[in-house]
């Protein structure tokens, strides 16, 4: 597998114009080192907002050129392993997150990680749910800031994006130009204060090109089931589109007419919120594995 | 406990003008029989949309006058037990639910319940998650259809409203005028096709008036944690309001300043979707029990 790709090789926008920092064959497994979302700039609770370079937020390590990937293909990204540093950081403040209208000053808080828990304070230890906030490929059109999610992935801040899961992205540029960053030691759905427990670390992924199939939005498959992940201007739009994406994905794989599949989704499918604080919001529609198993559904080759 | 309140004593709108069908002392336990959300009108897969009386949808059995309840109090409703009939029904069609724009005709589907599973078809059995769709008290102002959710509860279609949970409602009318109906044998978050597995049954609840505290929106407490439940015109508004309601509920119960509590909620709190298909949509913010335990928080007396 060789050495990890270093976090200093970071982009701040996904773009088909970005120069790849590495090229790999389809099927390769690679280890990627990442900064935290503040580019490791916050090292104490006393960090002043003006001391932070806000142009260096949400770095994603890469991009990686995946050989043979062409626009119209799918890039599958199996998350083999996540390794986190032993200290995370949270931050919130005016105009940030759901409570930004009531907060008077920017505040940061260092959070030690010990024995699989995040030590919020002496009373409260938070169980970890390690996840990847920013992960994706170059978008079709203009560059997209790594702080923004979209059809190319990006800042989806989705809890399901964790060890063992496989993401499927539409490819828009030759080589796909994959990158990831913004790890969280823990985060709740919504990321309501604008940050999770932000942390640096390393992620090992296997990157594989899938030919002959295409996608409009990222899809995630795990041991638990499958999720369509959609980012939009409103939660209502993101949630509804994620449902329709799922139905269009499953419809050709079952013998159910649209009306019956819709009823089935109403009984077993879950509309879920990923984040409500990035410039666009992200929702997902989740279908549990026993439903796929009942119809012997294999979504991707 | 006496006989169950009969489902024929049903309302189709929550209103402070409704005449109570029963009066009980605070602290009483009562069994309530309910129609399904179609008032048991759909008995076969061939049911035509025009054969259904659409004025008789979402019946809620009641209202029950709870002695001593006054506007400004809280009514707590402990869901002691749910008993379901052995056949449910789903329906969807044009202009109903997320896929309504692509469906050509109204369709109903009877779904037998056997051995704790809903038999969707010969391939697929769905595990049950029994829950109550419509539950609430008379609203402050004009009558509100039982198909619509709001600050008074109503058609919240929230999966967490199930056996063992306790709901807390703001009281707007003398006696609270409590009613419930619209049971589901199973439903996914979102209720994307417009129905869950709709079913008639019986629910046993304990109704208790809490004096000296008040609420703006319904709150639910279970063995797993606490949720603020908010209905609004958009999911974005419902989700954000549910977060702020939770923070205002917890802030006086901890020693954390607003900024720190916001960070904590960002790490451990979950924005969740209840339903996206009723005239208003419903979201909730969930905080797990270990967080309340760490601060010895008791929300209601």
UniProtKB/TrEMBL annotation, chains A, B:
Enzyme nomenclature, EC number: 3.5.1.4
Spans traversing the lipid bilayer: none
Keywords: Hydrolase
Top EC class, one word: hydrolase
Gene3D superfamilies: 2.40.10.120, Acetamidase/Formamidase-like domains (2.60.120.580)
Stored InterPro entries: FmdA_AmdA
GO molecular function terms noted in the UniProt entry: amidase activity
Superkingdom in the source lineage: Bacteria
Keyword Hydrolase appears in the UniProt entry: yes
Pfam families: FmdA_AmdA (PF03069)
Record protein name field: Amidase
Upper taxonomic lineage: Bacteria, Bacillati, Bacillota, Bacilli, Bacillales
